[in-house]
Write a structure and sequence with these properties.
Shape: globular
Family: Belongs to the glycosyltransferase group 1 family. Glycosyltransferase 4 subfamily.
Domain Glycosyl transferase family: 203-361
Number of strands: 13
Strand order of the largest sheet: 3-2-1-4-5-6-7
Domain Glycosyltransferase subfamily 4-like N-terminal: 15-183
GO molecular function: glycosyltransferase activity
CATH superfamily of the largest domain: Glycogen Phosphorylase B
CATH class of the largest domain: Alpha Beta
Helix content: 40-55%
CATH architecture of the largest domain: 3-Layer(aba) Sandwich
Protein name: Glycosyl transferase
Distance between the termini: 26 Å
CATH topology of the largest domain: Rossmann fold
Largest sheet: 7 strands, parallel
Structural class: alpha/beta
Length: 404
């Protein structure tokens, strides 16, 4: 098959959708398919993106079609992207759209419809209830101006878990849902680096334990909840510091201000974004991973933390109940006291934390791997008419089975 992925940006600073798009495309390429990615990405973004993904297996098989960074007119109209889509979609079997609220995506879907090429849309959490409440009026106007048509005409909407599929229901979209999670390449975690990253990068952390937040610094990620939880923890655990790693998604300044107001500036360390081996070294070196997010589709960061053997504390809004059922960490509410209590439980019991880490590794390795996920997406692309009710019912969940 010729498969064309379309995403608004390949900048790794944009978070999980960019990482998963690249890895899914690479995994599909490894199955022998002709896989292309259409996106915006100027020279600097290309440099960051290709540097962060250079160790992704089969990355070199992907065919790239990158447009310059969009100016204001292109950002609104997406005309250059539409022309690129028309060219790349010639001879394509299927188009996979990542995200929702961008003209490049709506125009690509329109081109696909005109050429009778089926497409799916992977919202990456952008259509759930919390997300729809952000800039609510603007999004409902956008739905009326073509984005609802884009969604309704999709062969299916790819939800990352059953919670995300249920959270789409208030929109009353006519396209059926398929549920396929994100994953990892086992090769990326086959040889984990040695400990010592934080002492090397931040000498003040030498001899200390680290609670690690690794994600975009965005309001939805719950950084304020994390800071308030750490205040409750810090006095009883003088040997534990908080490290916040990730690109600024608009919440960095507010977080720094809150940390100063809470008087924990000496115990909180911001590293900026970490990619590739640096990210793995941070995950291996931490004592616990924490993501008290207000909204997630299927967090790449949680999956990677577990793949590194790290116990995790995540919010129920991360929609990852398997963390609790597999005893790989704790799932908590958006309550700083509950987050702090869960972190304390892990920090107080290293033996249990080690067991949680091993359980998390097993959970990820047996259930969430890109080769299996790539096979499931191909099955979805090639399935019959998903608009048939019976087909939609039978195909509603495509969860990856264990790799052996």
């Amino acid at each position: 098959m010729k498969i064309v992925h379309v995403i608004s940006s390949i900048d790794p600073a944009k978070g999980g959708p960019q990482a998963t798009c690249v890895r899914l495309a690479a995994a599909q390429s490894a199955l022998g398919h002709d896989v292309h990615i259409v996106s915006y990405g100027g020279r600097e973004i290309q440099k960051r993106a290709f540097q962060s993904a250079r160790d992704v297996p089969h990355f070199s098989r992907i065919v790239w079609h990158l447009l310059p960074d969009p100016n204001r007119i292109e950002r609104v109209l997406g005309l250059a992207a539409a022309r690129k889509s028309r060219t790349v979609l010639k001879g394509a079997s299927f188009m996979h759209i990542h995200g929702v609220w961008e003209p490049i995506l709506k125009n690509a879907a329109a081109v696909a419809r005109r050429n009778q090429i089926p497409y799916c849309i992977q919202p990456h959490g952008m259509l759930d209830v919390w997300s729809m409440q952000q800039k609510r009026l603007k999004k409902h106007v956008a739905l009326a101006l073509g984005y609802r048509k884009m969604l309704n005409r999709a062969k299916f909407l790819l939800a990352l878990n059953s919670d995300e599929a249920q959270l789409l229901e208030p929109l009353h979209l006519s396209a059926p849902n398929l549920i396929i999670p994100n994953g990892i390449f086992l090769e990326e975690f086959a040889e984990l680096p040695a400990k010592g990253f934080f002492a090397e990068r931040l000498p003040r952390l030498d001899g200390k334990r680290v609670v690690l937040f690794l994600s975009r610094l965005h309001t939805k990620k719950g950084l304020d909840i994390l800071a308030q939880a750490f205040v409750l923890l810090a006095g009883s655990y003088p040997d534990v510091d908080l490290v916040v790693a990730g690109p600024d998604g608009g919440a960095r300044d507010a977080f720094v201000t809150l940390v100063d107001q809470l008087g924990i500036e000496d115990r909180v360390h911001l590293t900026g974004p970490l990619y590739g081996n640096g990210k793995l070294r941070a995950l291996v070196d931490a004592s616990c991973f924490c993501l008290p997010s207000r909204q997630e589709g299927f967090s790449v960061a949680i999956t990677e933390a577990m793949a590194c053997g790290l116990p995790v504390v995540v919010s129920d809004a991360c929609h990852f109940p398997e963390v609790k059922s597999a005893h790989a960490g704790a799932v908590v509410s958006l309550d700083p006291a509950e987050v702090a209590s869960a972190l304390a439980g892990i920090l107080d019991n290293p033996a249990m934390a080690s067991i949680m880490g091993r359980n998390g590794q097993r959970l990820v390795r047996e259930n969430y791997t890109w080769p299996r996920i790539a096979e499931q997406t191909i099955q979805g692309y090639q399935s019959g008419d998903n608009r048939d009710a019976k087909m939609a019912e039978n195909s509603a969940v495509l969860m990856p089975a264990a790799d052996h």
